[in-house]
Amino acid sequence: MINRNVKKTGIPTLDDCLMGGIPIGKTVLFYGRPLAESDVFVMQMVYTNLADDETCYYVTSGYSPDVARAAFKEYGWDTSKYSKRFEVVDAYSPLVGASSSERFSVKDPESIESYDEAISSIIDMLSPGDMLTFSSLSALFDQCSCGGEAVLRHARKWNKMAVLRGGIVVYNFVDRGYDPMLVEHVKNGLCNATVQVGGLGEDMIYGHYFKPYSCDWARLPERPTLFKITRPGGITVHIPKILVTGPQGSGKSTFVRTAAALSAGKYVSVDRMGTTIAGDHAQVTIKGFSMDLFGTPGQKPFIPTLKAFAVDAMGIVVIVDSADPDFDTAAEILSTVRQERVPYIVVANKQDAAGAGDADYIRGELDVPGDVPVMGICASNGHEVQRTLETLIGMMVECPSSSPNEKFDVVISDLKRVQGVRAAAIVSRGGILKSADVPGGVQGEKLAFAASTILNTAEAAAENLGEGKLGRLVVDIDERRLLVRGADERNLLVVLADQGGNIGPVIAEAEEAVKRIKDLQKNS
C-alpha cells in the first residue's frame, strides 16, 4: 500500500534510511562538494514524484530551462510527459539578459527580494505533497548581492511557509569554499534532514557515497552507502564486490551466469575443460542495486589464494552441491574467506537433483551459525538466484543502529511507572531515537516520527502567528494524548498518555524527566 503522505526519493536504500521517504511538510538538503554530483539526487527525486502523479517546481539558477530539461533526458527522464505538473522556475535567463518563456521566473536573480517574490508566490499555490526543489542553493549564495546569511534567512522563511501548506522543499547545496560557520548552519540548521554526498579518493576517482547526516524523523545509519551514476539510469546503490565461492563443481559459474542474465549484465568466464581455473565476473543490477559478482576457482590447490580473492568483498556467497557435497572442502573455504563484519550466505545448490540434502542438513553438516541464512536453490533458476542476492543485499546494506543510549533508559523507565503513560521516548532533533519504551506493539520510530512531524508544523505555525518558539505541545490523537517537550537544544521528550483522567501528573513527571535529561547531558 502506497503511503501518500511520504514521498519517495527514487533511491530505495535512501528511502529505507528515511523510513520510507520524505513526509509531507518536511525539508531536505543534499550537501556535497564539487564533482560529487549531488544535483542528480534532486533530479531523481523530482522525476520519481512526477511519475507518481505529484506536482514539482524546479528552480534552476545555473543554466537555462531548456538545458535543465535536457539534463533530465540525459538520465532517461523525459519531463515533457508531465509538463502540466512540472514547472521550471527560471532564475537564469534574466541573469544573462534573456527573456524567459517560463510561467515562473525570477526577475532579478541578483536580488534575494526578487527570489522571495517568485518563491513565495509558488509556495502560496502548493497543495499537500507538492514539491519545491532548488537545483542549486549555492547559486543564490554566488549571485545574490545580499550575502549568504540573508539567503539563509529567506530559505528558512520559505521552509516555514511550505510546512504550513504541506509542501516539501528540497535543496541541492555544493560547498565551493564558503565560510565554514555559514556552511555549518546550512548543514545543521536549515532543513529537517541533510544527506551528505561525497566521493572516494582524489577527484572521487574510486566512486561516490551518500549518508544521511541529520534527520529528525528517522535513525541515522552508521556507515555511508556507495553508489554510481549511469546515463541513462541515474543513481543506483553500488556494491563493488560480491564473492561467489565453493568447492569444484558446486555450481558457482552457473550462479554467476544466471545472475548476469537477470539484468542483461556483462558476464566473463575463464573455463578450461568444464571447470573454471581463474574467475567468473558478472555485472548485475537488481531493484536499484548494481553489483559486481566475482566467482572463484573451486579446486583444492587454489584454496590458499581465496583470502586474496575475498579482500574488499562486501558480501560472500558460498555454494555447496547439496546432492554430492564436499563438506571438508566447503568448510575449509568458509574458514578461509570469512571476514569480520562481512555478511555471507550458504547456498545449498542443485535442490532439483535426486538425493539432494535440504538446507537444514547442509547447515548442520557445516555447523553454520543460526543467524547465517542457508538457502536451498537451483543455480540455473533466475528467480531463486535473485532471491539469494536480495537476501544478501539486505544483510549488506547498512541499517540504522538500534542500540539505545543507556544513560536515558532510567528516565524512560521511571516515566513508564506514571499512571496513564502508555509509551515514552527521547529523540534527538538530529533524528536519533536515543531511548524508548513502547509496549503494545507501538514502534519507537513511529512515535518519534509522529512527534517530530507534529512539532515541525506547530513550530512553524507559532512563529507565523508571532507566538515565538514552542516549549511544549499536547495533541489529542484518538483516545490518547501526545506530549512533546523540548528537553534541550538537541533532544525531545515524547510521551503518549491515555486521555482519561488528569493529564496534570503526566505533565509534571515529564517536566521532571526533562530536568534529568538536561543533567545527564551536562555530565556526559
Automatic annotation (TrEMBL):
Residues 408-497 form the Roadblock/LAMTOR2 domain. It holds the Pfam family ATPase. SMART domains: Robl_LC7 (SM00960). One of its GO terms (molecular function) is GTPase activity. InterPro entries: Gliding_Motility_GTPase, KaiC-like_dom, P-loop_NTPase, Roadblock/LAMTOR2_dom, Small_GTPase_ARF/SAR. Keywords: GTP-binding, Nucleotide-binding. This is GTPase. The keyword Nucleotide-binding applies.
